[in-house]
Prior knowledge:
The chain is α/β, with parallel strands linked by helices. It has one domain (about 25-185): Vaccinia Virus protein VP39 (Rossmann fold, 3-Layer(aba) Sandwich). About 35% of the residues lie in helices and about 20% in strands. Strands 3-2-1-4-5-7-6 form a seven-stranded mixed β-sheet. Strand 2, helix 4 and strand 3 (about 85-90) form a beta-alpha-beta unit. The longest helix is centred in the first third of the chain and has 17 residues, at about 25-40. The mean pLDDT is about 95.
Amino acid sequence: xxxxxxxxxxxxxxxxxxxxxxxxxxxxxxxxxxxxxxxxxxxxxxxxxxxxxxxxxxxxxxxxxxxxxxxxxxxxxxxxxxxxxxxxxxxxxxxxxxxxxxxxxxxxxxxxxxxxxxxxxxxxxxxxxxxxxxxxxxxxxxxxxxxxxxxxxxxxxxxxxxxxxxxxxxxxxxxxxxxxxxxxxxxxxxxxxxxx
Length: 196
């Protein structure tokens, strides 16, 4: 049986301009937005952990635009680790000792069942001393937002409420996919915070 996240998966969702979900330019705009918000809030950005780093768009952006930031990337896919140089890690089982100013987790959690996803969030929280950028498509996203001809729909489609409930003990929702560690030192104005 072929591995789920092997060469065919990466060719389909990241390689072909006709079928890919995002490209380097799109992720570059996102990385610029995320890092600009962190700078606007006056938070340090010394190190980044990218969980599920895929083809390495975030890493290339940081190397080019923020070489002063220490960047570490992990993946569950052996293929991606061998091809793009990530550490082989399963976020549902792995928890590093280092804490990071920014943890990026883009498109990973929907592939995990509820128990593994909750463990992964615990691990993300333990490794975060600042911001978490989280992208996890929800049931409503699949229904109302996603182009299902491009999106991998073979995922665990949970509600946004489920994610917010599991994230809330660890993070404050600050919007645009950004969450901030409750153990961090920043304060946010009431209307900057989400309801979680």
